[in-house]
Amino acid sequence: MPSPVARPSGYESFPYVERGVDFPGVELSDPSHRRSTYAAVLDEERAARVERLFAENVIISFHDHPQLLPSDPAETFTYVRTKHEFTAFTELRGAGLTALFDKLFGAIGATTWSGWRWDDLTTTLGMRLADPAHQDGAVVARAGKDILDAKRDGHIAFIMGIESAGAIENEFDRIDVLYGLGIRQMGFVDADSNTLGSGQKEPRDAGLTTFGRRAVERMNALGILIDVSHASNQTSLDAIEASSKPIAITHAGARAVWPTPRMKPDDVLKACAGHGGVLGIEAPHTTVSHDHTTHTIESVMDHLQYAVDLMGIEHVAFGPDGFYSDHVGFHHATSANLGLSALTNAGELRYDRIAHVDGMENPSESFRNVAGWLVEHGYRDSDIQAVLSGNILRLLNGVGR
After folding, report:
1. Which of 75, 100, 124, 172 has the fewest CB atoms lying closer than 10 Å?
2. What is the pLDDT of residues 226-247, one digit of tens each?
């Protein structure tokens, strides 16, 4: 098994900068390191079917972080605040992905404890865009057509998004600026509230603000996909009602399956589907279930099956929210800053402590394991194609310009 620490000579990103001079000399995680042991039970014919599905179809992650983080999670803040977020390009190509919604690391990259400021956001976005521009076979997608072109050309496409619009503050035209810089998906709020609406950790849910309604209209007009993954319940419902176009929940699960504030209740999920939207099922350390309290791919699939029954297969996809590092260590290192403990009901729910989510710990393994699980459990090719990309492509074409 490879070392969990990558050698500096193996870092692919930012080939034009000097290690230890232009950014801290922290050791990064090795993207080829594997913790999972899960493998779908497939005979030769079904295994070949999985490979055919990957070869013939576009594969899209609705929410991921394709970056390498430090091998020591305690160094996360120091590392991310440099704005150089290293990406595992070779691993992503081997994962079979055509495209992923690349979410910047948000509040943990801020210069203040209260979250991203405008300069933090634009600087980090510029850094992210500079990196794939210097990588063979990596492109930035600004429309659904770009994703199809990437599949044709054998490239990996990055769709740039942010998890919270808080950095625009009350500067309305900053939405246009972000669109011009390549942002095609925007989360309304993270856990904390902002000028657009209430976040999911607020004890009093005030819903969408007047400014938030104006932002919905502008995002609709520009062609930016609205994401309410971290929004409060009322903010989510208000945004769905106010939007003239379908919205997304790019990474979450069903609260009926695991009752934490991080999950979405039935009324939000049904409203999302009723307006043509799509839910991306999340993975790391969130989508536990009462039937599978040891969090593995089986827990994740409990959320998938519930969402399919409630919303319809045409409104479900996968947004695993993975990255290349120790997820458990990362959550421990960042929970105080991100308010993660307030979103888990940790004292009220019994679940097994784990070292990793077996089968879905990073972007390299998630989607092949998902496809294998779906084939093993009798899903039709058309349904597998829908949740691996078809639903997202339809949504993008309905929102974009």
Report:
1. 172
2. 999 999 999 999 999 999 999 9
Q: Give the closest residue to 371 by CA, choosing from 356, 388, 392.
A: 388
Q: Assign 188 to helix, strand or coil.
A: coil
**Tens of pLDDT, residues 269-296:** 999 999 999 999 998 878 999 999 999 9
Residues with Cβ within 8 Å of residue 204, at least 6 apart in sequence: 198
Q: Give the pLDDT band of residue 110 (cuts 50, 70, 90).
A: low
According to DSSP H, which parts of 7-113 are helical?
Answer: 44-56, 76-80, 89-94
CA 360/CA 373 separation, integer angstroms: 12
**What's the predicted TM-score (pTM) here?**
0.94
CA-to-CA distance for 40 and 151, rounded, in angstroms?
26
Q: Which residue has the tokens 């004890």?
A: 203
Number of residues that this document lists for the chain: 401
Residue 159 contacts residue 100 (beta carbons within 8 Å): yes
- Which residue did the predictor score with more confidence, 23 or 385? 385
Give the integer Cα–Cα distance in Å for 283 and 1: 24
Q: Cα–Cα distance between 243 and 228 in angstroms, integer?
A: 12
Which are the contacts of 207, defined by CB distance < 8 A and separation ≥ 6?
197, 198, 232, 234, 235, 237, 238
